[in-house]
Specification:
The protein is α/β, with parallel strands linked by helices and 367 residues long. It has helices at 21-33, 45-55, 71-79, 98-106, 122-159, 193-200, 223-233, 284-295, 312-320, 338-344, 354-365, and strands at residues 13-17, 37-42, 59-62, 87-91, 111-114, 184-189, 211-216, 237-240, 251-254, 260-263, 269-272, 299-303, 324-328, 350-352. The protein folds into 2 domains: 13-139, Rossmann fold (3-Layer(aba) Sandwich); 184-365, Rossmann fold (3-Layer(aba) Sandwich). The chain is 38% helix and 18% strand. The strands form 3 sheets. It has a 7-stranded parallel beta sheet with strand order 8-9-7-6-12-13-14, with helices on both faces. It has a 5-stranded parallel beta sheet with strand order 2-1-3-4-5, with helices on both faces. Strand 10 (260-263) and strand 11 form a beta hairpin. Helix 2 (45-55) runs parallel beside helix 3. The radius of gyration is 21 Å and the shape is elongated.
Length: 367
């Protein structure tokens, strides 16, 4: 097969871990045909760790259900290693096992790809796998560059006559100056989003602004588990939207996978089965535009890590109607795609690392 036009000059090196010999062959062949170099395979978790230690691949594709050390165990071991390897989980998922998928993301997986079910075109699976492996490899390059950037910043501060302020990590961030306008907060994210949300949402106080809406790109059946995990750690009540709710300053509503989250003129949330936009449902742009149209200058958009440009059109509406836009800085993004699109368009009021976003949100949204 001809090498894809977007394949890198140096192929991305991948290790494939799956207890099924058929799946190992299928994944290896598909990745090779899409311009990746499969440098090793593993039939269980212990083998996967050994192969990764020897070969130092750019990305590991990982099944979760394997004999011996399972996929979650592998993720935990890699997370604690000196040089973590980005992982794309390739496993059989169902809504009934949504918590397992969310556990994998919480333990450090960059993204998830569901193994193809009977009747689904394998071409769609292979295209999704390729894009997510490529994004995972890009996340490693960003993480390797971050220490160099931090060292440069440290050197610059040392040369400056002004001392840097001491860093603080409060359990919940309180506003340094109360916003004059209480705003509705819309948070949009994709690849790396569950981990970013796990770092951000527990730092936010309750009540917050006029309420919070979250759009995270996930398939149907998994967002309920994500909401439940976030709710356990947060002062805000986090729940999957069911439709009909009014925004509440004490509640963060998460758009359910497979539905667009819309807002009526009366301010009630409604869920829509309208067609996917750019392959996405939920689509953040749709939610952002509805919120901006309803609340105008009382809208605060926050865009976190993610592939693609979802959120850009919504950010244009937010700024046009007088609202505010914050984006996550490249230094803490798993994938600097969605925030980059908004920043490069000149639409971001501030670009901040994840650990500084909570304070900025509180200041902008009010309590």
């Amino acid at each position: 097969m001809t090498q894809p036009a977007n394949a890198p000059a140096t192929p991305i090196r991948v290790v494939v871990a799956d207890d099924s010999g058929f799946m190992r062959r299928m994944l290896s062949d598909a990745l090779g045909q899409h311009g990746f170099e499969v440098v090793g395979v593993a039939a269980n978790g212990d083998e996967a760790l050994g192969v990764c230690t020897r070969l130092h691949p750019d990305v590991l594709t990982l099944d979760l259900a394997m004999p011996g050390l399972d996929g979650i165990g592998v993720l935990r071991a890699l997370r604690d290693s000196a040089s973590p390897i980005p992982v794309v989980v390739v496993s059989a998922f169902s809504p009934a096992h949504g918590a397992r998928a969310v556990d994998a993301l919480a333990e450090g997986a960059v993204d998830l790809v569901a193994k193809p079910a009977a009747g689904n075109p394998p071409s769609n699976f292979f295209a999704e796998l390729g894009s997510k492996v490529r994004a995972a490899a890009g996340s490693r390059r960003s993480s390797l560059a971050a220490p160099r950037a931090a060292a440069t910043a440290t050197h610059a501060r040392a040369a400056s006559p002004r001392p840097a302020p001491a860093a603080t990590t409060p359990s919940v961030v309180r506003p340094r100056t109360r916003s004059r306008t209480r705003r509705t907060v819309v948070i949009a994210c994709s690849t790396g989003g569950p981990r970013a949300l796990a770092g951000l949402i527990p730092m936010l106080p309750s009540p917050l602004g006029e309420g919070v809406v979250i759009v995270q790109h996930m398939p149907p059946g998994f967002t309920g588990s994500l909401a439940a995990r976030l709710d356990l750690a947060s002062g805000l009540e986090v729940r999957e939207a069911s439709g009909g709710e009014l925004l509440d300053p004490r509640v963060a509503l998460l758009a359910p996978g497979g539905k667009h989250l819309r807002m009526s003129d009366s301010g009630h949330v409604r869920l829509s089965d309208e067609a996917e936009v750019g392959g996405l449902r939920p689509r953040a742009d749709i939610t952002i535009k509805d919120v901006a149209g309803r609340f105008g200058p009382r809208t605060l958009l926050v865009v976190l890590t993610g592939m693609g440009r979802d959120g850009l059109e919504g950010a244009q509406d937010v700024r046009r109607l007088g609202g505010r836009v914050l984006v996550e800085a490249e230094s803490t993004c798993t994938v600097y795609g969605m925030p980059r699109a908004i920043s490069e368009a000149g639409l971001a009021d501030a670009e901040l690392p994840l650990h500084d976003l909570a304070a900025a949100i509180v200041e902008e949204a009010g309590t």
